Amino acid sequence: PAMDYAALAAAAAENMELYRRDSGGWRDCRRTSEVSVSWRPSAEFAGHAYRGEGTVPASPRDVWECIKPVAGGLRTKWDQNVKDFEVVEAVSDTVSVCRTTTPSAFMRIISPREFVDVVLIKQYEDGTMLSAATNVEHPLCPPQPNFVRGFNYPCGCFCIPLPGEPDRTQLLSFFQTDLGGYLPQTVVESFFPANIAGFYSNLTKAVKALKA
């Protein structure tokens, strides 16, 4: 049976809203000047869910411009973990099925990965933007021979305007990714917090470059 992409995307967004409201049980695992990263066991798979929270020195519009999940977007330019991003099927104005490939990482211990997700974009009345995603299968995306297929469980980023601070944006992000393959748990648990810190650091540089 065909997957109901719109329903899966809506469920991922709902999941993100629950995560945003539910601040209990997160344990700090990394802190930089740009982000505090915490984790708790995922309810979706045998790994961890990670939460990143930081303030980016740019308007919500500029931050969104850098992270929005669109073909030909800026993300492949600044995010060292996104090698390629393609829209496989536009389901509606706000929902699309996308394939992301990542380069090898962690001193090549982690080989290149590919992820196929349904992605939803949502705007809230207060100006907050959400991009939420979860793994799906798609007939146009069979597993590729040179990549390990990884799976994103409900994940996403909230770009939240800060009242009275038009040039600052709160970025709240949730990641829960099964990298697939046969990676030791210790590798995975050191990779993600460092990776999320790098995401915030590179995003901060990207928004500065965008404004320059």
Structural description of this entry:
The chain has 212 residues and is of the alpha+beta class. It has one domain (5-211): Alpha-D-Glucose-1,6-Bisphosphate, Chain A, domain 4, CATH 3.30.530.20. 26% of the residues lie in helices and 37% in strands. The protein has helices at 5-21, 60-67, 75-78, 185-211; strands at residues 27-31, 36-41, 48-56, 84-90, 95-102, 113-123, 129-135, 148-149, 151-152, 155-162, 165-175, 177-178. Strands 1, 2, 3, 4, 5, 6, 7, 8, 10 and 11 form a ten-stranded mixed beta sheet that branches. Strand 4 (84-90) and strand 5 (95-102) form a beta hairpin. Helix 2 (60-67) packs across helix 4. The longest helix is centred in the last third of the chain and has 27 residues, at 185-211.
Write the layout of secondary structure elements.
Elements: H1 5-21, E1 27-31, E2 36-41, E3 48-56, H2 60-67, H3 75-78, E4 84-90, E5 95-102, E6 113-123, E7 129-135, E8 148-149, E9 151-152, E10 155-162, E11 165-175, E12 177-178, H4 185-211
Parallel strand pairs: 6-8
Antiparallel strand pairs: 1-2, 2-3, 3-11, 4-5, 5-6, 6-7, 7-10, 9-12, 10-11
Helix pairs in contact: 2-4
Sheet/helix structural class: alpha+beta
Query: What is the element string, with H for helices and E for strands?
Result: HEEEHHEEEEEEEEEH
Termini separation (Å)? 49 Å
For this structure, the quaternary state is single chain
Q: What is the 3D shape?
A: globular
- The proportion of strand residues reads 35-45%
* Alpha plus pi helix count: 4
Reported CATH architecture: 2-Layer Sandwich
Q: Specify the CATH homologous superfamily.
A: START domain
